Amino acid sequence: MTFLSLARKNAWRKPLRTVLLLICIAVAFLIYALTASFLAGSQGTSAASEDVLGVMSVAGRAQPLPMAHLARIAAEPDVGAATFMTRLRGFVGSEKNVVAVSAVEPQGLMSVNGRELGLTPALIGSLDQGRDRILVGRALAEAQGWSVGQLITITAFQMVRQDGDREWRFEIAGIFEGENESTDTYFAIGRYDYVNASRAKGRDTVDVFVVRPRDGIKASTLAARIDSLFANSAAPTRTQSEKQFLEAFLRQYADIKLIVNLVTGVAFVTLLMIVINTMVFAVRERTFEIGVLKTLGVSGGRIIALVLVETFLIVAIGATIGLVLAKLATVLVGTVLGLAFSPSVLAKATAIALAVGLATGLLPAINAMRTPIIKAFRAR
Fold this sequence. Notes:
This protein has helices at about 5-10, 15-45, 70-75, 105-115, 120-125, 140-145, 190-200, 220-230, 240-250, 255-285, 285-295, 300-335, 345-370, 375-380, and strands at about 55, 65, 80-90, 100-105, 135, 150-155, 165-175, 190, 205, 210-215, 235-240. It is of the alpha+beta class. It is elongated.
């Protein structure tokens, strides 16, 4: 009998106990993976850039900035590319069915954020065939059931047309995929010149300027420099990275990261107590067998290794089940719930599994190693 097969047989000595333990471990890792995926998806931790900067009014995004700011921003020597955006928010059909269109200058967006959004020259070129054409993100298109060539009508919440109407009609020119599955594609991209010429007020203003620093330039340094340009102007700015903006926006409603850490912390503390208690009793039941192994010359180090391998085996199987279920959930409903099962989530879960296996197996392993042979035989 090999060392690994002995550990496997010990793990399955009492199948019902092992199955219940696997369920506990799987649930804990399922909770962690889902909450971490939600955090990655909602805050864009795996997609939001720390280098791309957003320049907004210091009074908030609801306060527009004059287009004249663009020339001063672009003139900064450390700015690699700069563009602008105005957000048209509205609904399709029901007011609960909210959608957003980012009105931009297509070539400017391509130079600043084209790679992250998965934009191609063909997609950008399709916007030039009509001012009312838009590109729709894959997540939004799938959620709404839209396709290329379809005509849609968005009823704006606030942006009114010059004729007093709030209905904006667009033709879908293409669908962009995003750089990876964690990229936010639940929005559409339209032409700023169309929206700007048609709206009743706020003409020649934008919601945000999007800036990419030159290679080798720190985003934080450039952000401070941009804000200093407009510190004494009629429209002062606040410049943040995409990631900082998303985190600040979500903290207006709740500190999601703190909530996630508390939930997962409680889950794993409970898991540690359950697994340690179970493994201590499981090893205690085999006290006599451990004495036999020591009598046959098995060293204390190998006794520790035997118990640790058994624990790692159980934790690995349970964690794998939980992570597979979490990945399946992101595939099925990830777009709707904003889940992003990124490689970083998997890496952290793997590290946690190793830590849990070591923490839960070390105490019973040391107890098994320190048990005297005579005491072990008396346990028979």
